[in-house]
Amino acid sequence: MSKFSKKESKKKQNFKNQDSKFLKYAFISGILIVVLFVLSIILNLIFIGNARALQTITLIQNVLTIVFVFYFFYGFFVIGRRYGKFLKIISALIILIFLGYCLLNLFSPYFFGKDLMLKLDEKANSVGFDSAVEFFNYINTNINTNQVEVQEYTDFMVREMIPLILPILIVFLSYLLMAFILFILFGVGLIKIGNDVKYARVAGILAVIGICTMIILIGIFVWLVAYVFMLIILLKESRKK
């Protein structure tokens, strides 16, 4: 074997070792996403009513989620680079869209959240409430007991408050729609590499079914099963030499 061939062979081996390392990180990140999700639910229940504590928890959760999700889907970007260009492209797009969503979610209070809440509070003050939160709570708790008055407040809310919230709602719904489409394509990408990667076809089919039925509760459980298969795929691929 020539020196050039040996050098190229060594370079390829180093590249494979680096890929295996990233796939291992992706697997660990996938586990940590679940741990973080469960932990955040517990902490939110413990600190319910403590706005400052919940704000801090949300901030930390968003930062850690950005890191873990990036590594998780970068793992599938690596797998796509090995076996299928389509999966690589979709994984990269998911990373970009998700990072954009998280950054928007992270910084939205600083961009327009404070001004928005002040405007909503002003609207609530004009009809005799101390804050928008008190206004929404009143509607929620009296919806069945005082329907005439609640209807008047609801009409006021639709006329005066919804237009303030609408731009933010449109942005988040747009991200939700993009995520829906990309996750279906991600499932298709997994199906496409089913001949090369064990469990990829199963994970892909379950992912597509899970996303399409997410509107009903069964979709969540189907996606969770698909997620377990994704973790298995990352672990098995990280052990390949």
Task: Please explain how this structure is put together.
This protein is mainly α and 241 residues long. The chain has one domain. 87% of the residues lie in helices and 0% in strands. α1 packs antiparallel against α2, α3 packs across α4 and α3 runs antiparallel to α5. The longest helix is centred in the last third of the chain and has 46 residues. It is elongated. The protein starts with a helix and ends with a helix. The mean pLDDT is 78.
What does this entry show, briefly?
The chain is mostly helical and 241 residues long. Helix content is 87%, strand content 0%.
Unreliable runs, pLDDT <50, ≥5 residues? none
Number of helices: 7
Overall average pLDDT: 78
Quaternary arrangement of the chains shown?
single chain
Largest sheet: none
Element order, helices and strands? HHHHHHH
- The total tally of domains equals 1
Helix content: over 70%
> Structural class, judged by helices and strands?
mainly alpha
The span between the termini is: 21 Å
Question: How many distinct beta strands?
Answer: 0
User: Which overall shape is indicated by the principal axes computed on the Cα atoms?
Assistant: elongated
**Per DSSP, what share of the residues sits in E-state strands of 2 or more residues?**
under 5%
How large is the radius of gyration?
23 Å
